[in-house]
Write a structure and sequence with these properties.
single chain; 317 residues; alpha/beta; Elongation Factor Tu (Ef-tu), domain 3; Rossmann fold; Ubiquitin-like (UB roll); 3 domains; six-stranded antiparallel beta sheet; five-stranded parallel beta sheet; 18 strands; 32% strand
Length: 317
């Protein structure tokens, strides 16, 4: 099922930090936007044929606007560059309704947030919700320098209260936050949330390996498509139609399905966003995504990047 598409007006663009802009999106007719919860993102259609996911970083209680923060990433495939260079205030942008795969845990007694770089964006809405609920939380915000640290003014008050701690490493992670020390002990009732670039995500995942899996929540905001070295082909079977297709080593399941006229919704095609999440009924997938938890992998697969360890993988399609 395709996501509902909204047309929004870019009301304001603000330079938040070096290389980072925020964009205020509103209803062109002045109406309310669909509600969202902390941790949610929207898919944004960017001129040039790009579709990218950006977290909503304003207070979820607001209904008159969405706020997204975007890093101009020269190493990306071009989506963020196109947004920075080609989109102006007054332009119209098509977006999806908010989607949330990074929700706050309702049963948590305290919340520990770790953000690396532009990974701060989902944390901004989380902190708004946690403050409104008078919940216990602390954010560790890791960046290279103050000049590339977004939302510094907005976070200043929380920093004075000790609920936000800035860490600047000058480009050398050894000079920044000691992630292993912060996560060395797990206190029952604490939930961990983290988002940031690949190296940061890997470091936090390793340091939190001893935490209960249901107390750890994460979201990858960007990344290259997983490089899968698999010379073997396998067969994918669609349970609802009974049709089967061979998936060679140099093509994804999504690519093969599309070649055969099977519509599949995708967005990032990098195993990050969760758009192509599909239930499987038989067979054993080889998971190459960044989005699914171990529990979710027992029944779902991201078909943009997954392979199969068995000759046949049966999908609920």
């Amino acid at each position: 099922m395709q996501s509902q598409i909204l047309t929004t007006l870019v009301k304001q663009i603000t330079r938040e930090a070096e290389g980072i802009n925020t964009y205020v999106l509103v209803d062109p007719r002045g109406g309310e936007l669909p509600p969202f919860t902390a941790g949610a993102h929207v898919d944004v259609r960017i001129p040039g044929g790009f579709m990218r996911q950006y977290s909503l970083c304003n207070d979820p209680r607001e209904r008159h606007r969405y706020l997204i923060g975007v890093l101009r990433d020269s190493a990306s495939k071009g989506g963020s560059i196109a947004l920075h260079d080609n989109v102006r205030a007054g332009d119209l942008l098509e977006i999806s309704i908010p989607i949330n795969r990074f929700e706050l845990a309702s049963n948590a007694r305290r919340h520990l947030l770790l953000a690396g770089g532009i990974g701060i964006t989902p944390m901004m809405a989380m902190m708004e919700s946690l403050r409104a609920a008078h919940a216990e939380f602390v954010l560790h915000y890791c960046t290279r320098t103050p000049s590339v640290t977004a939302f510094r003014e907005r976070l200043a008050g929380l920093a004075e209260e000790g609920r936000v701690v800035f860490h600047h490493d000058g480009g050398d992670p050894r000079n920044g936050l000691d992630i292993r020390q912060v996560l060395s002990s797990y206190a029952p009732g604490t939930h961990l949330y983290y988002c940031g670039p690949t190296g940061f995500m890997r470091a936090v995942k390793d340091a939190a390996a001893h935490w209960p899996s249901d107390a750890v929540h994460f979201e990858h905001f960007s990344g290259a498509a997983p490089v899968v070295h698999d010379p073997h082909s396998f067969t994918v079977k669609l349970a609802r139609s009974g049709k089967t297709y061979e998936v060679p080593g140099d093509k994804s399941i999504v690519a093969v399905l599309r070649e055969n006229g099977v519509h599949v919704d995708t967005s990032c095609e990098a195993g990050i966003c969760g758009t192509c999440r599909t239930r499987y009924l038989e067979g054993q997938p080889i998971h190459n995504d960044f989005a699914l938890t171990d529990a979710e992998r027992t029944e779902a697969v991201m078909i943009c990047c997954a392979r199969a360890a068995t000759p046949v993988l049966v999908l609920d399609l």
